[in-house]
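Dataset card, provenance and construction

Sequences and ligand SMILES were collected as paired inputs. For each pair, a complete structure of the chain with the small molecule in place was predicted and serialized as structure tokens. The example below shows a pair involving fe (ii) ion. Curators did not alter the output after generation; any descriptive sentences attached to a record were derived from the structure itself.
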Amino acid sequence: MHPTLASFAASVRDVLREQDNPAGRERVAQLLRDALRDRAFVDSLFDAASPPRKVVHEDPQLGFCILAHDYRDAGDGPPHDHGPSWAIYGQAEGETFMSDWQAVEPAAPGRPGKVRKLREYALTPGVAHVYNEGDVHAPRRAGPGRLVRIEGVNLERVARGKYEPVGDGISPASPSRVRPAPRG
Ligand SMILES: [Fe+2]
């Protein structure tokens, strides 16, 4: 059966109501992988005027959000977490080069934390990855891409820590250089 936004949201709600923890979010990520394989479902979330960030469902019961991200060009996002929330990144089109970072010094009021890069990997179409509370990550795109993301709560209303990269042994620490990526 083809998922619709409403049926997908209901499935996510069923899982999170029962299990809002890393294991439950992995189940949600699998639902998202399945949905991303359905061309009609993906197409239903986007149109020619899609903005970089569009909340397509904000759950009235649990507060999670489903978002369609339509990025028209390259972007280089700084390391970030999602404060007290979590997010699942699902790649619909294009490719995201994601990196995971380890905190070496916590953020404090008025002072960014320091993080070191641990690994890099590609999110390719159909891949969905869970970032739990406090997981620091940085997305980068070499070109256009579309993502379907799920946030535990609408992150527009959540304060998040700032982080500065320190040397990582993988590549030199460098500031964002293409353009600030939308927060994600
Ligand atoms: Fe993120």
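Derived descriptions for this record:
The chain is about 20% helix and 35% strand.
The beta strands are 54-58, 65-71, 75-76, 87-93, 96-105, 113-123, 128-131, 136-141, 145-151, 163-166.
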